[in-house]
Design brief:
With 312 residues, the chain is mainly alpha-helical. β4 and β5 form a beta hairpin. Helix content is 62%, strand content 9%. It is built from twelve helices and five strands. The chain starts with a helix and ends with a helix. It folds into two domains: 194 residues, no CATH class; 117 residues, no CATH class.
Length: 312
C-alpha cells in the first residue's frame, strides 16, 4: 500500500517547517550582505580616479562582517534543522503506529561536525570568500577593470550586482544543503536507536523541480547506517523501514520509475531535458540509467545526473 495519509501529513508538515527555516536564514544572510553591496555600488558610481581607498577598505571590512553574519545564520539554521530532524523521525514512526521506545539525545555528532572550526561549512564559506562571487578582491577587480575599460558607473554597478547575486545564491545553496544534511542525519540517528527500524527509504517531492537522479532514487531501500548521498540543494527525505509488516505497510514509498512513468509528458521533459526525454520515450533508456554517484571534495558522496553524451 502507498504512504498513509498520516505519514503524508507528517512529511508535509516537516517540509513546511523546513522551508520556513530556509526562508528565515535566506533573509538573514541577504540582509547581512546589503550594507556591503551598497558600499561597493557607491564606489562604482564615483568617478574613476576618485574612488578612495578608505571607501574600498570600508566595503571590504563590511563584506567580512557580512560573511561572519552569514556563517552564524547558517549555523543557527543547522541547529534548528537537526532538532526538527529528531521530531520528524519520531513523527513518522508515530504516524505508522510504531513503538518509539526511549530516545536518547541525538544529532550531537551531526552538530559538532557541521559547526566546528574547520568543518565543511567553514571550509566552504572560507573558500567562497577567497575565490567566489562577492568577495572584496573580486569586487575591487571589477571596479579597476571597469574603469580601465572606460565603462560608465552604471555598467560597473551592474557587473557588481551580478557578482553579489551569485554570492547570495551561493549562501542560499550552502544553507539549504547543510540544513537538510543535519535534518536527515539526525532523523537517521533516531532510526538507528529504534530496534524495530531496519533501514530507510528514499522519499522525494514529486514535482518538475525534482531532478531526474532523485526521481530515480525514490522508494529505494537502504540500511540504517548508510547516510543519504544527497546532492547540493537536495530536498529529499527519509522514511523508516520497520520490522513489523503491519506498521511498515503505512510507510511504503512508491517506486520512482513507476511514479515517473505516470507523470505528464511536460513534467517528464522538464525533469529529463529534451535530449534524454526523447531517449526515454523511445525506450532506449530507463530512469535508472540517468543516475550515478560521485565523490565531491566539499559535499561528499552524492547522486547526480549522467551526462547526455553518455546516454546517447
Amino acid at each position: 500500500m502507498p504512504l498513509s495519509n498520516a505519514v503524508r501529513q507528517a512529511l508535509a508538515e516537516d517540509r513546511a517547517r523546513q522551508q520556513a527555516r530556509e526562508q528565515a536564514v535566506r533573509r538573514r544572510t541577504s540582509s547581512a550582505t546589503t550594507a556591503s553591496r551598497l558600499l561597493w555600488l557607491e564606489a562604482a558610481r564615483e568617478p574613476a580616479r576618485t574612488v578612495s581607498r578608505t571607501l574600498l577598505r570600508r566595503a571590504a571590512d563590511e563584506w567580512r562582517r557580512a560573511n561572519r553574519a552569514s556563517s552564524s545564520a547558517i549555523e543557527t539554521g543547522i541547529q534548528q534543522a537537526a532538532a526538527q530532524g529528531e521530531r520528524a523521525g519520531l513523527a513518522l514512526l508515530a504516524a505508522a503506529d510504531a513503538d518509539t521506545g526511549t530516545v536518547e539525545q541525538v544529532g550531537t555528532q551531526v552538530l559538532e561536525e557541521a559547526t566546528r572550526e574547520g568543518s565543511r561549512l567553514q571550509r566552504t564559506l572560507a573558500r567562497r570568500a577567497a575565490e567566489g562571487a562577492g568577495n572584496p578582491d573580486r569586487a575591487a577587480a571589477i571596479l579597476r577593470d571597469g574603469f580601465a575599460k572606460g565603462l560608465n558607473p552604471r555598467e560597473v554597478a551592474a557587473n557588481l550586482s551580478r557578482e553579489f547575486y551569485l554570492a547570495d545564491y551561493q549562501n542560499e545553496r550552502i544553507a539549504r544543503t547543510e540544513m537538510m544534511r543535519a535534518h536527515r542525519e539526525t532523523t537517521r540517528s533516531i532510526y538507528e536507536q529504534q530496534p524495530g527500524t531496519v533501514g530507510w527509504r528514499w522519499v522525494i517531492e514529486e514535482s518538475d523541480r525534482t531532478c531526474a537522479a532523485c526521481w530515480a532514487m525514490e522508494g529505494t531501500e537502504h540500511p540504517t547506517p548508510e547516510p543519504m548521498p544527497a546532492h547540493p540543494n537536495c530536498r529529499c527525505r527519509m522514511a523508516p523501514i520497520l520490522k513489523d509488516p503491519r506498521a511498515d505497510s503505512f510507510l511504503q514509498v512508491p517506486d520512482g520509475e513507476t511514479q515517473f512513468a505516470r507523470q505528464p509528458a511536460s513534467v517528464q521533459r522538464r525533469v529529463l531535458g529534451p535530449g534524454a526525454y526523447d531517449l526515454y520515450q523511445q525506450g532506449q533508456i530507463s530512469l535508472r540509467d540517468v543516475v550515478t554517484t560521485r565523490n565531491d571534495p566539499t559535499w561528499g558522496q552524492s547522486v547526480t545526473r549522467v551526462p547526455l553524451s553518455r546516454l546517447a
